[in-house]
Design a protein that fits this description.
By secondary structure, the chain is of the alpha/beta class. It folds into three domains: 97 residues, STAS domain (Transcription Regulator spoIIAA, 2-Layer Sandwich), CATH 3.30.750; 158 residues, Beta-Lactamase (2-Layer Sandwich), CATH 3.30.450.40; 62 residues, Arc Repressor Mutant, subunit A (Orthogonal Bundle). The protein has 14 helices and nine strands. Strands 6-5-9-8-7 form a five-stranded antiparallel beta sheet, sandwiched between helices. It has a four-stranded parallel beta sheet with strand order 1-2-3-4. Strand 3, helix 3 and strand 4 form a beta-alpha-beta unit. It is globular, with a radius of gyration of 20 Å. The two termini are 25 Å apart.
Length: 343
């Protein structure tokens, strides 16, 4: 795997880095780490596009890691975002692309340890938002997904987004719930997994969802049911840039992550309604706190979510508790912004 690191203002500080001149022979994937970039202009974008052209000629994909708002804004304005699979961090990209398998396509022993570690989290008190984030992140890394979302039914049997890996996934989940169309909706209705590796071929099946998903850079979706007492109450949805890489074992592992997520949500009691309502209230508090941070810090929602989680981790409190303190006024956005390191 070939990894490039860019930092600061690449066209000014390290113009030599934009040459991307390492040989692509015997390379399985190319990753460009942008987590330390503070300014991104057309010069850097053109360099990335040239790299992509060279890589495509060798049937390689260029992945972007740690995409900050200064980069995302340029990609969105120029409509070049869908050309590059994105990962939240370099570690996430490496885990996604370099997860080893044996000759039979099976994953090594550490996967069992991952499940055991997540299951251990569910024993005793835990922050639901943080736990779901961990499950989603591990699911994406382990099962080869580029985005993961979790939707559940509220007490009125209306589907609600309860956790997701980012804005693109959140937008697609919201669209499916508002239009009652898409693989995730179909999964909940039928209670069976809905797997599509070639979304473009399903345009007639989901005429509104498919164009939106393709525009976001996803070519495949795996929707897996959340079952409780014989009833499907939600779905875990995996979005793929290259669904052809995914195996049957990936999907079986993803269903296990979906089951773990359901256990986390229903942990407080046997009746599904009460814990789901509580989970949705926690989600609402986090979204409101994130909006407050985004407004006061003039950042994107994604950056504010990361800031909230980072501060919560540094101070040893759960993200939900921190969000509630912020919403209630027991802590101010100024305090978080002046004490939490920016990423």
């Amino acid at each position: 795997m070939l990894i490039y690191h860019l930092a600061g203002e690449p066209d000014q500080d390290t113009p030599e880095a934009l040459t991307f001149d390492q040989p692509l022979d015997d390379v399985q994937a190319v990753v460009v780490d942008l987590s330390e970039v503070t300014f991104f202009c057309s010069t850097a974008l053109n360099a990335l596009l040239r790299l992509r052209m060279d890589a495509s000629a060798r049937h390689l994909t260029v992945h972007l890691a740690g995409v900050r708002q200064v980069v995302a804004r340029v990609l969105d304005i120029t409509d070049t975002g869908p050309l590059f699979p994105r990962h939240t961090s370099l570690d996430s990209a490496l885990g996604r692309l370099a997860a080893p398998r044996d000759g039979a396509g099976n994953r090594p022993r550490p996967l069992v340890e991952t499940f055991a570690d997540l299951a251990q989290t569910l024993v005793g008190d835990f922050d639901l938002a943080d736990t779901l984030d961990r499950i989603i992140d591990q699911c994406a890394t382990t099962c080869g997904a580029d985005g993961v979302g979790l939707i559940v039914q509220d007490t009125q049997h209306v589907l609600r987004d309860i956790a997701d890996s980012g804005g693109r996934v959140r937008h697609l989940e919201d669209q499916q719930m508002s239009t009652a169309e898409g693989p995730c909706i179909e999964c909940v209705r039928t209670g069976r997994p809905v797997l599509t590796a070639h979304l473009a071929a399903d345009l007639a099946r989901w005429p509104r969802f498919v164009p939106a998903a393709l525009n976001a850079g996803f070519t495949g979706v795996r929707a897996l049911p959340l079952r409780h007492r014989g009833r499907t109450i939600g779905a875990m949805n995996l979005f793929d840039h290259d669904a052809g890489r995914c195996t049957e074992q990936d999907t079986r592992d993803a269903q296990t992550f979906a089951d773990l997520a359901l256990l986390a949500v229903l942990q407080p009691g046997e009746d599904a309604a009460t814990p789901i309502v509580q989970a949705l209230h926690e989600r609402a508090a986090i979204e409101r706190a994130t909006g407050m941070l985004a407004h006061d810090a003039h950042t994107t929602v994604e950056q504010s979510r990361s800031l909230l989680r980072t501060y919560a981790a540094r101070t040893g409190q759960g993200t939900t508790a921190l969000a509630r303190a912020l919403v209630s006024g027991r802590i101010t956005t100024t305090h978080i912004l002046t004490t939490a390191p920016r990423r």
